[in-house]
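Could you please consider the sequence and fold following this short note?
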Amino acid sequence: MKEMVLLLLALTETASRSGHGSWCEPGCDCRGDLKFTICSRALFTELPGRIPPSTELLDLSDNNISFVPQRSFSKNRKLRVLLLQNNNISVVEDGSFSQLEFLQKLDLSWNRISVLTEGFSIGLAFLRELQLAHNCLTSLDSRSFMHLDGLQRLNLTSNSIHTMQVRSFSSMSSLRQLHLDDNRLTFLRSGIFSMLRSLEVLNLEGNQISGSEEGVFKPLTSMTLLNLANNQLSTVAFRTFLNIHTYSTHILLEGNPWNCDCDLQRVFSKLQSIQRLFLDDYYNLTCSAPLDLHDYRLMDVDTGLCLAETVTVLIISVTVVITVLATMLMGEKKRKERKRGKHWSQQGHHSDESDN
């Protein structure tokens, strides 16, 4: 009898720990009291069917799920956090998350997603954080994030993104952090970030960016951190950063192959005088060109060389001006001499006629 009571108590405790016994998929830990359902590392190859309707956090990470069907979570409308990282997901059907009106965080990182259709974001108007790092995305267009009006943090780190259409982020007026580091971007065109007036952090580290249009950062009136480290920048236009009209912006530029000519030194000298811009890693910037300055720190390059160059240019300019003026004066002098000679010649001629 005592053994039976103990068995019943154990079963009761297990059922209590599992929330709703009939609603908990084998392999999951359904913590009804916390409204958590933990199904990570359960070797699932598809989404489980029995998840307690009261679940607010669902962890499906570290499984072998490859496909997310349409309306997959129609019975779990109370979800606030959905974790699907470290699976094998390559297809997310349109409307897969359309029933999750309360969802605030969606983690799809470390999967194999290569395309984001317009239907991907249907129903996610109140999503605050979207993790898509370490997938297979190659391009972004105006449909990719169309319905994510409330998104505040977007992580696209370590994809293979090489093209972004001008309106790729047009619906994200609330976005505060955008992580595009470790992709394949080569050039930044004006208009790409035109609607991101709330953006505070823009991480572009580890791409292949070699240049940008001067107005590309101008719309980012809230930006506090711009990370352009470890790209392919050899020079930069002064107005590119001058167009950043924020109260205070920290800029990271280390790890680029800088061409340390006098023009670059002048640009950085002027940038350091702008009080609202902070070049946090200026003292670590190194030269890749010219060859005789390879691996020199930019700050250690002898500014006297540029001063000498400036003086040389001034001397050459003054010399040219003097030469031109001298030539003009000589020409004027010769013209006057010819005119004077002609005048005397004419007077001599008149004198001869009078003598006759």
In short: Residues 185-323 form a domain with the Leucine-rich repeat, LRR (right-handed beta-alpha superhelix) fold (CATH 3.80.10.10). The longest strand covers residues 249-252. The chain has a mean pLDDT of 86.
